[in-house]
Amino acid sequence: MLRPGLAALAALTLLLGACATVTSEEATAPASAGPAVTVTRDGESWTADYVLDRDAPVWGFFRSSLIDGSRRPWRLEQWRVLTPGVVLERVGDRDVLRAVDGGPAPRAVRIAFTPKAENLEADYGVLTFTDGSVALPDGQFDLFPLASVEAAAALPDDLNGHPMDAGPTTVTWRDRGGPILFRGQRVAEATEAGADTYVLFGQADLVEGPRLTTVSDPELPGWIGGAIEDFAPRVADYYAGRLGPGQTAQPTIMVSWNGPTSELMSMGGSVMPGLIVMAFEGEGVVEPSGQVLGMARWFIGHESAHFWLGQTVRYERARDAWITEGGADLMAIRALKGIDPAWDDRRELQKEVDDCVGLADQSVADAGARGEHRAYYACGAVFALVAEAVQKRATGGDWFDFLQPLIADNREDGVLGRDEWLSALDRVSGDPALRREIETLLDEDSADPAGGIAMLLDRAGVAHRREGPRVVLL
Length: 474
Prior knowledge:
Elements (H helix, E strand, L loop, with lengths): L14 E2 L19 E7 L2 E7 L6 E4 L12 H5 E3 L4 E6 L2 E6 L8 E6 L13 E2 L5 E4 L5 E4 L2 H5 L16 E6 L4 E3 L2 E3 L1 E5 L4 E4 L3 E4 L4 E4 L5 H22 L8 E6 L8 E7 L2 E7 L8 H16 L15 H19 L5 H15 L14 H22 L3 H11 L8 H12 L2 H12 L5 H12 L3 E4 L2 E4 L1
Parallel strand pairs: 1-20, 2-12, 18-19, 19-21
Antiparallel strand pairs: 2-3, 3-8, 4-7, 4-11, 5-8, 6-7, 9-10, 10-16, 12-15, 13-14, 13-16, 17-18, 20-21, 22-23
Helix pairs in contact: 3-4, 3-5, 4-5, 5-7, 6-7, 7-8, 7-11, 10-11
């Protein structure tokens, strides 16, 4: 996430976690019981007590993302192993627990940790609230056995489809200070494997409305909560009208506030089944303005779009995140323009093109490994703009008309792969060169990304002109 000063609000980039990396449910795993962990808050103390279901010298964490910007492993800064003979370290792309002597790790491992809100690269981070409440994503505790440190080092960055020797970790959640909030309900404790949700510790306000449930920081600027409650149902109705039902019609929206930090305007968020999480920070969002409200609505529109593109159907491999992230960007842009015709959609579209040109000098599909996740959003939106243009030329339709059959045809298996997306482009356009040019940008480095993108837009019929190194939409 960029953290611009107030003079640079127009350049704001949002960190949107819906392209988050693999969960254990998405990997290929046998139906074994798997490990278990009990996560407990006792006042200011937090512990994770693991019970490992087999002997293994190394246990790897599915979610091992880096901190956005610094690219440091967040877990090594927040977690501390209390069990003698076990260390937590980074091996390749993975955080691992390892037995110091090279033998099997103890079957019981205790970890103390201090939750901290960090912006993570394409992953779900901790949410902290000003009243002391904390929301944790369950996937942070998922782990799996490995035969050796060398096996951990050899793991691919993307674990989608990679064979695993254990099922998902069963997590039990407890707060000695009172009930937790789990799936919208206050309960004494909860136990589930692969919950794919956030669990709230503390008493942050819960408000159930007719269309959505909100959990908001008590110090969140009031206009933000009002904008969410007003706009989220409207944009969801727009999407449902064009694409059919999404993953949920009654989402929970969890919103944290990290304070009015000087010279900052920051919005971040992600989506899980039935749940949108958002974090706001900075003096730039304390008071509403037309520009800030437009950005907030766009942010809500992007996150809500993932109930269709990201939850109803998801990508097959992490390198295909351009399908969901760029697609959600164009969904939000078109929905906001449809709801508010005065909204400046051209500025957002131009930013997508500019950012894609700046990032497509290296293969877009491999951008995640470089920490350049913005390429999935920007270039994915450019590819979606191309698909929209050929749909308009073929039928008079728009981006939603291109997307609707792709979602409808893949509702059952829930996966929208790269080949399916590009094959749909072939069918609608009748021009296989468009596919080849997109695949070139996805898979190869480019000495002239602006030239490649201009050629792609030209073949699709998207009006533009070249201004030196820029491709400017008309």
